[in-house]
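Protocol step 4 of 6: structure prediction from sequence.
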Amino acid sequence: MKDFIKKQIDQSYQTKKLLVEDGNYHQLICEVCEKAIETYQNGKKILLAGNGGSAADAQHLAGELVSRFYFDRPGLPALALTTDTSILTAIGNDYGYESIFSRQIEANGYQGDLFIGLSTSGNSLNVIKAMEACKDKGIITVGLTGITGGKLAGYCDYCIKVPSAETPRIQETHILIGHIICAAIEDALFGKNVLSDETKVKKNRED
């Protein structure tokens, strides 16, 4: 059992190690961070969606933006399109499961918003259709996928392909990338204005 646990930890470490060593990932994540910051500077919002564990990840990251991440600051507009059961079941019943995200984008997405679609396989049809709806509305699109990118890679403006084919490793790394984006947004918009570094450390310890 201990060897099994060690192997699981090492697999996660090795995936992240590849991110550390590859400057192409740094550049791509940097570009996505800059677009996310620009989205908020322009008074727009971030939309997120995914299925299963990726739905939970979308909600996780939306929560970091709306509430707080490293420190107290004004809330940032972000919507996880995975949370309203009445909307999801109405769209699923009337238009089909593949439309549960695209229909919401048609209703609540606006030009200049940014959409983050999470799909470990890169082949989730409802996320792909969401990307198509974003194109029609002038919404910037970011895909978080596994190593191949799947079909999704051809539909988004930016596709960050985690260097793994294993779902748990991909999802763990999606959260890492999402946290980097959240941290970059906070630092750019509020980092020098809201709390001193000393206060940030104290606040985090209290939480």
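Step 5 (inspection) to follow. The chain has eight helices and five strands.
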